[in-house]
Write a structure and sequence with these properties.
There is one protein chain. This protein has a single domain, classed as Rossmann fold. Helix content is 33%, strand content 16%. Strands 2-1-3-4-8-7 form a 6-stranded mixed beta sheet, sandwiched between helices. Strands 5-6 form a two-stranded parallel sheet. It is globular.
Amino acid sequence: MQRGLEGRRVALYVAALTDPSGVGLQQALERAGARVHVLTDDTGADEFRGGVYAALVATATAASDHAPILQLVREFMASDKPVAAKGEGIDLIVRAGGAAGRRLVAGARRAELESAGATPSDRAIEVDEAVVTAAASVSDEEFAASVVRTFSHRLDESAVDEMSELSFPASDPPAVSPSSAGHTTARNPGTDFTT
């Protein structure tokens, strides 16, 4: 059974609690069943723990290079958890060191993305595995729809992979290997096993 965002905790990083794009994204994520936790630079550092969130969405950049959001982005990128960034939020991926090898929406930051090892994209919305990026000009509704669709698919896929690993652990080899199935041991010549 696929559950998508249903009941999953999603961190939403915005410039301020009254940010209109943040409010629209929060509502779209909640309509998809997510439990949204809004983060800003004023939020306590203990709220920026990657282990409690299934996904991260950012529409703003951090005020400093020591902001807790940068560590949260690093955690998400390292663990391949879903991350979405729009406009200034894309800077978080670059500043956290997560741009290398990714296709990210370029906008005015093409040179910065290239020097960070990313492949700049001219699309308005770019999906690169678990990372969704969008230009600032993309409507909140269009960005939210892409985020919900991509995150739901990715989280369901991860849940299936996790269940498969639990069902068939690598440490339990099969009792019969394909090469030994139906194979009988040859008898040594001159040895009589009958009594």
